[in-house]
Amino acid sequence: MTTPMLITAIALALLAGPLGCFVVWRRMAYFGDGLAHSALLGVAVGLVVGVSNQVGMIFVAILFAVMLIWLRSQRLLATDTLLGILAHAALSLGVVAMTLLGIEDAEVHDYLLGSLENVSPDMLVYVVLGCGLSLGLLMRLWPGLLLMTSSEELAHAEGVPIRTYEFLLMLLLGVAVAAAVQIVGILLITSLLIIPASTARLVSRRPETMAMTGSLFAALCMLGGLPFADAMALPLGPTIVTLTVALFLLVLMGRLAADRLKPLN
User: Fold this and answer.
1) Residue ranges of the domains in the chain?
2) What are the Cα distances from residue 207, in Å, to 137, 194, 246?
3) In a 10 Å sphere around its CB, with 0-12 CB exposed, 13-18 middle and 19+ buried, how is residue 181 labelled?
4) How far is CA 1 from CA 31, 177, 193, 226, in A?
5) pTM of this prediction?
6) d(Cα 130, Cα 149) in Å, to the nearest integer?
C-alpha cells in the first residue's frame, strides 16, 4: 500500500468516525444509502459536463438532499417512502446513463463494490482535501448538531438554525460518499459510516469519545482491508466492510461478557 493511499485511508476514517455518529444518532442510515445510490448518477454527470467524478457526485448529492427536503415539506408521502423512490430512481438513471455513455459493465461493477485500480493519484488529492475541509466544518458545527440531536426544541431555543444544520449534515454525507465511492463502493459506503460508529457506541460513554473511537475503528479496518484485498485479489469494498463487521462482533461479545460479569463484582 502506497503512502498516498495510506493518507487517504486515514482521512476517510477521520471523517467517517464523527460523521457516522450523527448517522447513527439521527437514524439517517436510509438517507445515507439513498445518497450512495445517487453516486453513480453523479459519475455520469461528471463525465458529461467534463468535471471530476467527485464534483459530479457532490452536485447530485446536493440535488438529492434538496429534492428530499422539498418533497418532505409537501407532506404527501412518508420520508422513508420518498427516500426509496429517490434512491432507486437515481441508481437506475445512473446505470442507464453510464450505459449510454459507453462505460463497460466491469467499470460500473468497480464503482458499485470499490476497486484499487480506479484509485488515481489525482483522486487521492480530492479525497484528502474534501475530507479535511468536511471534518473542519463538522467540528465547527459539532455543538449545534449535538444539541439538535438531543432536542430540536432546545436547539431552536438556543438559536441553532436547525434546517440549515440539517442540510449541511446532508451535504457532508454527500462529500463522504464522493470521497469513499471508488474505495469502498456505492453499495457499501453507508456501512463504513454506520458499523465503526456503532462499534464505538458499545465502548463509549461520551459523544466525543464515540467519535474518536469510531475514527480509530474505521482506520483499523481501512488499513487492514486495503493490503489484504490487494494481496488476495478480493473486491475492496466487501473486504473492508467484512473487517468492520468482524470488529463489531468482537467488541459486542466483549461488551456482553463484561455486562454478565458486573453482578458478580
Assistant:
1) 3-264
2) 17, 15, 23
3) buried
4) 32, 22, 23, 7
5) 0.86
6) 24
Helix, strand, coil fractions of the chain, as percent rounded to 5:
85, 0, 15
Question: Using the 8-state DSSP alphabet, how is residue 166 labeled?
Answer: H
N residues, the chain: 265
Q: In CATH, what class is 3-264? A: mainly alpha
d(C-alpha 218, C-alpha 210), whole Å = 12
Q: What is the pLDDT along the chain (265 residues), one digit of tens a residue?
A: 567 678 888 888 999 999 999 999 988 888 888 888 888 888 888 888 888 777 888 889 889 888 988 888 888 888 889 888 998 898 899 888 888 888 776 677 777 777 766 666 767 777 888 889 999 999 999 999 999 998 888 988 889 999 899 889 988 988 888 888 877 888 788 899 999 999 999 999 899 999 999 999 999 998 898 888 878 878 888 888 999 999 999 999 999 988 888 765 5
